[in-house]
Amino acid sequence: MKKTTVLIALLTGLISCNSTDEPKNLLEKAPTIETQHMKTVLFVLTSHDELGSTGEKTGFWIEEFAAPYYFLKDNGVDITLASPKGGQPPIDPKSELPDFQTEATERFNTDKKTQAVLSQTLKLSSVNEADYDAVFYPGGHGPLWDLAENKNSIALIESFIENNKPVSAVCHAPAIFKHTKNKSGNPLVKGKKVTGFSNTEEAAVELTNVVPFLVEDMLKDNGGKFSKGDDWAPYALEDGLLITGQNPASSELVAELLLKRLVN
């Protein structure tokens, strides 16, 4: 009888442990990409390389491309790269400095295959929303000048939203919402919780009077419910089909939210 009691207790304990054993992260709760059709995400990068009239160069910020690119790629997502001009998009030279290196950027720096893919981005005018499940816009100051005003980008974003597909952007890339509208003709971000590179962060890099507009101000002016975390700390928001991140450190967090949306 004593042995039977011990055995029952042991079995009960095992069952209890198994029932409360949580996955290591939230992504593991969702079906894996392998159990579904492969998801496809379009990355749209800037083609603009002039930092206003300063004589300095700009472009996209490496971390904001590399971190989400590798995160999604490693999770089985098929990624296509595009830019307004096609070919090699300009890299912001400051993002190559030692102070801004991360595990993702260091991986990119030695990844000749991905560098080759990056050098051959498709022309934005040639891509079709119907071919992708979502779109991701890396930041850098470049998008403030070209993607914010690009008619192909505006139409593409509106098409993704109309077809119930997520649109994600990080840091300066929420500039893409400057002219985008919903079916009612209102700004796409109106009434939506959004974030992006904050005014205080722009002031910290001393470019407030260089950029054509401030991302935070534009999102607020368009009726977005803008909020931010601490400067330079990861902060991302999801509201409906819009996923936005505040700064370079938020890049992978935006990709995580996007992946959860794609697999659920």
Describe the structure concisely for a colleague.
This protein has helices spanning 2-19, 62-74, 103-109, 112-118, 151-162, 199-204, 215-221, 251-263, and strands spanning 40-44, 78-83, 122-123, 134-137, 167-170, 193-194, 225-226, 236-239, 242-245.
Walk me through what this model shows.
- This protein is an alpha/beta fold.
- The chain has a single domain (38-263), classed as Rossmann fold (3-Layer(aba) Sandwich), CATH 3.40.50.880.
- The chain has helices spanning 2-19, 62-74, 103-109, 112-118, 151-162, 199-204, 215-221, 251-263; strands at 40-44, 78-83, 122-123, 134-137, 167-170, 193-194, 225-226, 236-239, 242-245.
- It has a 7-stranded mixed sheet, with helices on both faces. Strands 6-7 form a two-stranded parallel sheet.
- β4, α5 (151-162) and β5 (167-170) form a beta-alpha-beta unit.
- The chain is globular.
- Residues 1-35 have low confidence and may be disordered.
Itemize the secondary structure elements and their pairings.
Layout: H1 2-19, E1 40-44, H2 62-74, E2 78-83, H3 103-109, H4 112-118, E3 122-123, E4 134-137, H5 151-162, E5 167-170, E6 193-194, H6 199-204, H7 215-221, E7 225-226, E8 236-239, E9 242-245, H8 251-263
Parallel strand pairs: 1-2, 1-4, 2-3, 4-5, 5-9, 6-7
Antiparallel strand pairs: 8-9
Helix pairs in contact: 2-3, 2-8
Treating each run of at least 4 consecutive H or I residues as one helix, how many helices?
8
Give the overall form: globular
Largest sheet: 7 strands, mixed
Indicate the structural class: alpha/beta
